[in-house]
Give the backbone structure.
Amino acid sequence: MRIERAEVLVTSPGRNFVTLRVTTSDGVVGLGDATLNGRELAVASYLRDHVAPLLVGRDAHAIEDTWQYLTRGAYWRRGPVTMTAVAAVDMALWDIKGKVTGVPVYQLLGGRSRRGALAYCHASGSTVDALLTSIRNHLELGFRAVRVQTGVPGLGKVYGVGTDQRAGERYDYEPAGRTARPVEEEWDTAAYLRHIPHVFERLREELGPELPLLHDAHHRLSPNEAAQLGRSLEPFRLFWLEDCTPADNPELLRRVRQQTTVPLAIGEVLTSIHDYRTLITEQLIDYVRSSPAHTGGITGVRRLMDLAGLYGIRSGFHQPTDISPVGMAAALHLDVALPNFGIQEYMQHSATTLEVFRTSYTFSDGLLDPGETPGLGVELDDDLATRFEYTPAYLPVNRLRDGTLHDW
Ligand code: CS2
Ligand code: MG
């Protein structure tokens, strides 16, 4: 079975998504997610101009060899654009193999290791009261783990904090910021560090000790600041503290690790097993945050998680709404199969996104399940997809009060 065609589809049902569609000589179609938030067209071109021509005529079953061909075989390696493109090819080939063999992809990964994947949602509020409303709304939807983000007194809009919800309001999705240039937000680390422990103190008072709570610091702290935050949050027993320091320098986490026992998660911006070597072998983290969509697909992430498993490190794959339902499905097949699964982010796509991408995964009683459809279990509605035109969208940047550009 040969690859006959590899097409790149760009659509924007609420957010921008890039999808690779691979068709075989037998007419079997596989989908791969090639979305890289804010840099979408770079991956589209990488695939269209440099990868698709190489795929035509290759054995569609040779997933590992194709992965090696596009990574080891390439002179320019690694990096988010390359690894997102490789991920899309890899997912599409796993999708095809599942469809041809008539089984969901998780069966090809060794079969089921658990009933479902524990999901965590995004709750947020500009104040702690608004945050509590958002948490309660999510608990009503069945969530059993919650990421919490709040506004900081004295600061304007803080990244990761959505519009405040009313009681009973259903969270839909976080729209892309469709401005011609990134929005600039103000940031003050000292104000943040003063405020956050009070937030968690109040949450534990209101919600009790059991609910798993997660928090994302978006790479904004120095090692010492991260250590202070970790220590101040220890009494509140977080499930994890995410991205406390900039991820590109893994050595920063040595100091954090020596100072606090708060569980650490990092890696949504890391894209290769090589980026994780120090983090894993020195046991500097507890959870791997990579998404299969940005880290070389199912093949790339499975290899990474096997290495992590040797050191007692578990998965917590990145799945905001800027990764498509195809990427989400790939994560879910890994989640139910991997021995060292930890938790799965589930930000919930908008109704419009889910009209274009028809999914067969389910969420019930706090657990996600990839479903039993052969392959990845996602179909793309072409006609509908063409109606949503690509519009550039950027993530915000943040500056300190004196105007200095600050880390993500
Ligand atoms: C966040 C994301 O989901 C997360 O943990 O950090 O909102 C992230 O900032 C975006 O997906 C970036 O594209
Ligand atoms: Mg994050």
